[in-house]
Amino acid sequence: MQLNKLLGDDEAVSPVIGVILMVAITVILAAVIGTFVLGLGDQVQDTSPTASFTFDYDQSDGADSFGSGNTAGDGLLTITHDGGDSIEAQNLFITGSSNTASDKVEVAADSSADPQYSGSDELSAGSQVTVRISNSDTVRVVFEASGGDSTSTLGKFEGPNA
Asked: Pfam families annotated for this entry (predicted)?
């Protein structure tokens, strides 16, 4: 047997590479189809927005964005969207809790006063919402995906006496 002839024989290289490529394409295609069949593809699309918020508490008189007036021990909390993704108002909630109660307010809530934002409005950098809180409240800005199947807290504020 001649060693030179064995090393120089490359007649079967092309068919082997072709088979390897076909198997790789089949495996990748099966993985992509499998993620959507099992429902994992939908979960990838339902991600929470990335946004930052600042909070400015002022114990003063005045009405908030929802028409609430001042009561003893209350103050105004101005929540400002500082940057990041724009968020539809209908998916954004302000939740608050004090020693006595828990509340959830939709930013686009219909109330006796005209809401500052309607459901399809987008809150982007610079957008503000003012809410009336007690100085012992803890307030969170919460994103809730359409359909309500997932939520995430985007910001948190604790009152001076919380």
From this structure: Pilin_N
Max CA-CA distance within the chain?
102
Label residue 62 left, alpha or beta by phi (over 0 means left) and psi (-120 to 50 means alpha): left
Confidence of residue 67 (pLDDT cuts 50, 70, 90): low
Q: Distance between CA 83 and CA 123 in Å, rounded? A: 10
Distance CA 14, CA 10 (A): 8
Q: What was the pLDDT predicted at 53?
A: 92
Taking the C-alpha atoms of residue 2 and residue 18, their distance in angstroms, rounded to an integer, is 28
Distance of alpha carbon 84 from alpha carbon 148, whole angstroms = 22
For the residues of 49-62, what is the DSSP string, one character each? P-EEEEEEEE----
* Phi then psi dihedrals of residue 9, to 5 deg: -85, 105
Gap between the terminal Cα atoms of the chain: 89
pLDDT of residue 118: 59
Q: Please return the burial class of 59, using the count of CB atoms within 10 Å of its CB with bins 0-12, 13-18 and 19+.
A: middle
Angstrom distance (rounded) from CA 116 to CA 118: 7
